[in-house]
Hints:
- This protein starts with a helix and ends in a 65-residue tail after the last helix.
- The chain is an alpha/beta fold.
- It contains 23 helices and 14 strands.
- Helix 2 packs across helix 4 (about 65-75), helix 7 (about 205-225) runs antiparallel to helix 8 and helix 20 packs antiparallel against helix 23.
- Strands 5-4-3-10-11 form a 5-stranded parallel sheet, sandwiched between helices.
- The protein has helices spanning about 5-15, 20-30, 45-50, 65-75, 150-165, 185-200, 205-225, 230-255, 260-270, 275-285, 295-310, 330-340, 355-360, 375-385, 390-395, 425-440, 455-470, 500-505, 510-515, 530-555, 570-590, 595-615, 625-640, and strands spanning about 115, 120-125, 130-135, 170-180, 320-325, 345, 350-355, 405-410, 425, 445-450, 475-480, 485, 490, 525.
- About 50% of the residues lie in helices and about 10% in strands.
- Among the domains are: about 10-75, no CATH class; about 530-640.
- Its EC number is 6.1.1.16.
- GO terms for molecular function: ATP binding; cysteine-tRNA ligase activity; metal ion binding.
Amino acid sequence: MAGSSGQQAPDYRSILSISDEAARAQALNEHLSTRSYVQGYSLSQADVDAFRQLSTPPADPQLFHVARWFRHIEALLGSPCGKGQPYRLQASKGRRVQPQWSPPAGTQPCRLHLYNSLTRNKEVFIPQDGKKVTWYCCGPTVYDASHMGHARSYISFDILRRVLKDYFKFDVFYCMNITDIDDKIIKRARQNYLFEQYLEKRPEAAQLLEDVQAALKPFSVKLNETTDPDKKQMLERIQHEVQLATEPLEKAVQSRLTGEEVNSCVEVLLEEAKDLLSDWLDSTLGSDVTDNSIFSKLPKFWEGEFHRDMEALNVLPPDVLTRVSEYVPEIVNFVQKIVDNGYGYVSNGSVYFDTAKFASSEKHSYGKLVPEAVGDQKALQEGEGDLSISADRLSEKRSPNDFALWKASKPGEPSWPCPWGKGRPGWHIECSAMAGTLLGASMDIHGGGFDLRFPHHDNELAQSEAYFENDYWVRYFLHTGHLTIAGCKMSKSLKNFITIKDALKKHSARQLRLAFLMHSWKDTLDYSSNTMESALQYEKFLNEFFLNVKDILRAPVDITGQFEKWGEEEAELNKNFYDKKTAIHEALCDNVDTRTVMEEMRALVSQCNLYMAARKAVRKRPNRALLENIALYLTHMLKIFGAIEEESSLGFPVGGSGTSLNIRRKHGPGAASLSIARVHSHALPSGVIRIPRRSAEDCPRAKSP
Length: 705
């Protein structure tokens, strides 16, 4: 009944026109039963006019709504006044009324900001569809063991994903790919296959020496042409190690040593020259390889190793995982539509993206992430792959800046049927086709390592927006920072890397994660003894606090004794607790700044330690409920970050996998790593002969002739 008089007047007029008072009261009661005349509505003039018709509330208990309505208006206006007089709220004459209430001013709620590589700024995170977040993350190219560079990206994204899902309560749909078709995989599979065949032939010492010398010739040319100082140093090291291993075998042959003594030197040389010989064998015999099964066995094996490494690191599995080999039909259709839209062209069985045509379009722009890198031929050729940058391939392009969507397969390469002849997908197209198939024309977040920005992610953006004819395929691009090893650049191609399995032999998954949490996810992280020592000390610091709180809670107390009177110390500690929670929330809103969060958590624990020490000094028991609340909060935050993976109600679980990981070793089909930096302890594929690691000093000294 309350509200605007214009809306209610017609109902009142019909009621007020009833001459019989009892009937009028009954009609008013029925009308009021459908109206709210108490909660939050202002009075209308129609209410006042009806009110004046009554001198007292009706005595009939069945007219409940009229009686309550009458008392409500009487409390506001006083007793009914004469007709025609305007109504007003008046001071109660002996009657108390509720005073007017106003809500508090409050504070502006903190909103999540994420560093968006598309703008190079922190932007307010606004998903496209309510709380649902669609997220695509570039997965690994599985041709070798996962290393700490992979851990840098996937632990960091796991932390971000957990924070968005478990702290900010977004509904995250997380998709990741596995690249199991790629130039690196093809080359490595052929090298492993050809080197295995070479070993099966058991070459004589003289033949091995001859082959090594033949392999050194193109290797020396490559070394002389290399300008990158790091790569040149790596090649020089390989050359030096091969030469050191060659000399003892040459002397052993010249000295006519026994078969066992010669074989010992042969094994050393085979180990040191494995990369050299494999590359040489592939360059001479790679095009003759016809066993296509090797191109699937290798990535299948290393994918399994990758998943086991992620599980050991407590990285959550993706909601959906896509493999390039399973999406070839979708990739072909994706490429065809890009061609149909005018942004791709066929050349000699391959299909290329026309960057000039795309960039000249009014609704598109090329190089959104790193515009200053457009035209960087070194980066572009690295993106095309070692098998795709021959002179004949490069001449097929209209512009050097164009990149392959689909590659015509050469002899010795896997192939799939398509409208342009047998071929295989380019590297960049795979993510566009798979993400587009699952997430549609626009996703909220795309993630990857910092080094993928150009050309990989810029090319992904271009070809996807060419396919969907839009300009918003990705809303937020997140890139994790580089990883260095003791200050040096980490690079698999430079053989300067540490595998995840090797890292887990030295430190637990929790310790590695704490090290990552203590640094910004988007900045460079140095994996060094100092970094890990800081993580170990932080873990020890927290663990001692949790153990102290558990010890306090272990003391027997009756049900009422668990609630103790608070003094100034407790009030002060509780104020600090809430201040720290606010600071932690603000840090998480600020680009998920876990570094600041960890500092605030450390400060909170320090305050708790001071409080417990002060209570102990005066022989008083600390307030168990307050300390338990703080410890539970810290435990909750560490669980959100994935630093506590077990079901632990408070603190780190005793003897859990986070502190003493048991690295499982799996045996199965796959392929050997060609890295001469180390012989990995995990399984090698069936049929590959493991060469025992020996040094040149292990060879018998050559006798004088």
